[in-house]
Amino acid sequence: MGRALIIGAGGVAGVVIHKCCQNPEIFEEICIASRTKEKCDYFKQKLDGGKTKITTAKVDADNVSELVALIRDYKPDIVINVALPYQDLTIMDACLETKTHYLDTANYEPLDTAKFEYKWQWAYREKFEKAGITAVLGCGFDPGVTGVFSAYAQKHYFDEIHEIDILDANAGDHGYPFATNFNPEINIREVTAKGSYWENGKWVETEPMEIKRVYDFPEIGERDMYLLHHEEIESLALNIKGIKRIRFFMTFSQNYLTHLKCLENVGMTSIEPIEFDGKKIVPLQFLKAVLPDPASLGPRTKGKTNIGCIFRGIKDGKEKTYYVYNVCDHEECYKEVGSQAISYTTGVPAMIGAMMVLCGKWNKPGVYNVEEFDPDPFMDALGKFGLPWKEDFNPKLVD
Ligand code: NDP
User: Fold this and answer.
1) Measuring from atom 1 of ligand 1, which residue has the nearest CA?
2) What is the rounded average pLDDT of the residues 73-88?
3) Which of 54, 74, 355, 374 has an alpha carbon within 20 to 30 A of 20's alpha carbon?
4) Closest by Cα among 276, 284, 378, 287 to 326
């Protein structure tokens, strides 16, 4: 059916590449392009010989003209951006210039401020509409599947959704004293930032890790979880009509938090450049260099993830609750695609989103968050491509 240009060759990209190759009727050809071409070649070597034709290229995704040249040369039907959030706007610019569909898994973030906001990407709405191309924003798991779950709940189970709690549990154990499951820089920026949630039409800000709850997760058990700011809250607050409150919770072990606090206290998580040996370095980038590469966690991680949404609202005049979630096993993911569940749960939805655009089911000119599309074909594909979901109509609620 089409060809995709995949930008980035890290943990998430690895899963996208495997999943495209498992779906050759849609992805007849893929090009893997990243800053370090050897990483692209590694995947090509591993997966060559199947039905999907794979090529590789070197590209600096901070550079619009390099991207435009690559897109003009390869002529993809869609660009799947699984590099870093810093590259979102340059890649969107290149897609605009070449009139190519775009998809990513994380919203744009400037290098020098840890701010997760859609405003920069939403500013492209009119330009994409005029160019007749689709941009799908935030199509990983959270954001991504959590938005699809919300659209599905809205479409099938509620007249009005009043509250959404997004719960992200990772009960994986990699055996290291401290490591992050995806890009350490992005991960630490996210968890050291202030928390916030949406209530009655406005943001309520909290100190980092100020709000803690304990939840008994299906197939995982009781875990401590903490309220974080998370990017999908911003779009869901606009797109789910009648919503009164949206919160996001993520589980962290005491061990992880103790290490993080210590690193924070000594200044290692700062994104302010400092002078060292006559050179400017960013402490968090240096920390990234000494921490285990998330890709190396795959073979060592045991346990499961559980990510889902609990909805409260009204159907036919009556109060209703609904919990929909996916449970994913780190070891099974590794066996299948050579990555742990965090990359897996992000990469599978990115492939499915691209498939939705290529087969015309999610194809409308403009810039959209996932909950603005029909959730049904995406929900069907989740089960088929390794992320089956479960429902509970009487879940325990978070207070
Ligand atoms: P990695 O750090 O493993 O991979 C990032 C890749 O992008 C690397 O291959 C890197 O190249 C490449 N890259 C970075 N800068 C450039 C550049 N300027 N030009 C070209 N390539 C570049 O990250 P992950 O795979 O863990 O994460 C990928 C994305 O997925 C991130 O945006 C992350 O925020 C998002 N994510 C989303 C989730 C969700 O549920 N929505 C969950 C987890 C992650 P090099 O190898 O040379 O460094």
Assistant:
1) 10
2) 96
3) 374
4) 378
Q: Which atom of ligand 1 is nearest to the CA of 185?
A: 2
Q: What average pLDDT does this structure show over 248-262?
A: 92
CA dist list (Å): 302 to 85, 256, 330 = 28, 16, 6
Instruction: Name residue 224's beta-bridge partners.
Output: 214
Q: Which atom of ligand 1 is nearest to the CA of 59?
A: 20
The pLDDT of residue 181 is: 79
Please work out whether the CB of residue 85 comes within 6 Å of at least one atom of ligand 1. yes
**Digit-coded pLDDT (tens) for 286-301:** 999 999 988 788 899 9
* Nearest ligand 1 atom to alpha carbon 181: 26
Ligand 1 pocket member 11 (CB < 6 A): yes
Ligand 1 near 59 CB (within 6 A): yes
pLDDT at 379: 98
Q: What is the pTM of this model?
A: 0.94
**E strands of the chain, at which residues?**
2-7, 27-34, 53-58, 78-81, 101-104, 134-137, 160-170, 195-199, 202-206, 212-217, 221-227, 245-251, 274-276, 279-281, 304-315, 318-329, 366-369, 389-392
What single-letter DSSP state applies at residue 193?
A: S
CA of 315 to the centre of ligand 1 (A): 41
C-alpha distances (whole Å) from 320 to each of 2, 212, 304 are: 42, 25, 28
Percent share of the chain, pLDDT over 90: 88
Instruction: Please tell me the residue having the least CA distance from ligand 1 atom 8.
Output: 10
The candidate with the shortest Cα–Cα distance to 218, out of 310, 293, 288, is 310
